[in-house]
Design a protein that fits this description.
mainly beta, 25-stranded mixed beta sheet, seven-stranded mixed beta sheet, 1 helix, elongated
Length: 515
């Protein structure tokens, strides 16, 4: 028995000594032992002085030994606008210092294991050094016993101004025509934009929080190349007597979108770039006017909500070279309005590209309207037309005039046009040189053989869009829309001159590159 004790006591002591001296287990890292999940980390595009989303870098120990990296730090050191969390630690000491989240020592990784490095950024382009592409750059340096390994960091920064109210109960209230779960009309609250906020230019983007109102008698002007971003549940409301002028311009071929106005949600990283319903709408109320040119509107609940009185003698909404994408409900929701639109593209709307209610007057020329929706559910139709309104449980007829010329109306259904006609009002429809998905319909207003409604139209032919999922609705040279339009001199939505014979839709056809 004593012999056995003499054997076990030294073994027990050796185990205890090893466990008490853990630092002996880790050897300094060598160059070939480390690898990384990425060699460059691109963080979200951020607005000045707002924090980015978090990105993750994985650092691998490819050896059979436990290793310690002597130093991990940002190249800019304590002045960097990036913040790191390395393996759960903001730094290697307990108190907060200027080195916290910037400089780390003796970072340990077990054999054939890995650690995570979490990365965030908060950048002010007016103070911090950014390059000509508006990128803020830095590197994470991993100093081993033999060399230094780098992982590049890049964040694009948008210099922005912010419109918001500090009042928890904004003073303005607006009754929408949407109802809550109890059947009551939803009321939203907003605040007036000040005179200083009514001129938006390309020099600084505008981020809108809440429901911003252009008050009666005022004009909001958005210059070419401007960028508007909306926070969740935010809107732009143009009040009775107010005016909205969005004045984008055509961009040169070598710098696309530089002069267009782009309006979207303020979550603009890759995961949110095409996600519908990130903000509410642009609401052009009865008595307001809007002129929108060379503009892209995307990721809203409803792109444009337009209201009129049904008796306008000129357009209260004019659209020229406008694209509306990824709307949760409808691209354009119009009630008793007068809308003139040329070179209009609408795609990826949850219910309809255009939904017209309560009549009005509408002229769409060279429009491309698709009911495709890739985010769950099936869009109802490309176009819904209704000339009635319910007042006190009674259906009241209104007058509706809608003219579609040189337009593509397409989608996944056999019939992409729905009409609800109240006999007490006028219902005047004309489709001239259009490409339409429509079969013989039970509604007498939509009989494809009726030449008073459908003039020189093409039915149920694939328009040949390049990629509806990615909102690329250009048509190829073999499209049935090619050379079949009623010639109207001018340019298409991207500035291509139309020649006779020209093409149906917002785009002139092109030859697609072979994949």
């Amino acid at each position: 028995m004593k012999n056995h004790l003499y054997y076990y006591i030294p073994l027990f002591l050796a185990i205890c000594l090893n466990s008490c001296r853990k630092d002996f287990d880790f050897e300094p890292a060598q160059s070939g032992q480390l690898s990384f999940s990425q060699d460059t980390i691109f963080l979200d595009t951020v607005f000045n002085s707002t924090r980015s989303g978090t990105r993750v870098l994985t650092v691998f120990n490819n050896s059979d030994n436990d290793i310690s990296i002597p130093n991990v730090q940002l190249r800019r050191g304590v002045d960097s606008r990036y913040q790191l969390n390395v393996d759960g630690l903001p730094n290697n000491v307990s108190e907060v210092t200027p080195e916290s989240g910037k400089i780390f020592t003796d970072v340990e990784i077990l054999a054939n294991d890995s650690i995570f490095v979490f990365i965030e950024a908060t950048i002010d382009p007016l103070v911090d050094e950014i390059d000509e592409q508006q990128n803020y750059l830095d590197e994470i340096l991993f100093r081993t016993a033999t060399d230094i390994k780098q992982v590049q960091l890049s964040t694009q920064v948008i210099n922005a101004e912010f419109s918001f109210t500090e009042n928890p109960e904004p003073p303005r209230s607006f009754i929408t025509e949407q109802r809550d779960q109890n059947g009551d009309f939803i009321v939203i609250r907003g605040y007036d934009l000040t005179d200083d906020e009514l001129d938006i230019t390309r020099a600084r983007a505008r981020v809108i929080f809440g429901n911003a109102v252009v008050p009666s008698g005022k004009t909001l002007t958005v210059g070419s190349g401007s960028r508007l971003f909306f926070n969740r549940d935010s809107s732009l409301i143009i009040e009775d007597g107010a005016t909205l002028n969005i004045l984008g311009e055509e961009s040169p071929e070598n710098n696309p979108l530089i002069n267009e106005v782009i309006i979207e949600g303020n979550r603009i990283d890759e995961d949110f770039d095409r996600l519908p319903g990130q903000w509410n709408f642009i609401w052009i109320r009865q008595g307001a006017t809007a002129n929108i040119q060379n503009t892209i509107i995307k990721n809203a609940t409803t792109g444009i909500l337009a209201q009129g009185n049904g008796n306008e003698t000129s357009a209260n909404v004019s659209l020229n070279n406008v694209q509306i994408y990824n709307s949760q409900t409808v691209g354009i929701q119009a009630r008793a309005s007068f809308i003139n639109a040329t070179n209009l593209v609408i795609n990826q709307s949850g219910r309809a590209a255009i939904n017209i209610e309560e009549g009005g007057t509408y002229n769409f020329t060279h429009a491309t309207l698709s009911s495709t929706f890739s985010f769950g559910g099936v869009s109802q139709n490309a176009i819904v037309l209704n000339n009635s309104v319910v007042e006190s449980s009674n259906v009241v007829s209104t007058n509706l005039t809608a003219n579609f010329t040189n337009s593509i109306i397409s989608g996944s259904k056999r019939d992409e046009i729905t009409v609800v006609n109240s006999d007490g009002g006028n219902f005047d429809l004309t489709f001239t040189n259009c490409l339409i998905d429509l079969t013989t319909n039970n509604n007498s207003l939509l009989n494809p053989n009726d030449s008073t409604v459908f003039q020189d139209c093409i039915f149920n032919e694939n328009p040949g869009f390049r990629n509806t999922r990615l909102n690329d609705l250009q048509i190829n040279s073999e499209s049935p829309a090619n050379s079949t339009a009623l010639f109207i001199a001018g340019k298409d939505i991207i500035g291509t001159e139309r020649v006779n014979p020209s093409d149906i839709g917002a785009y002139e056809s092109i030859i697609f590159d072979e994949e």
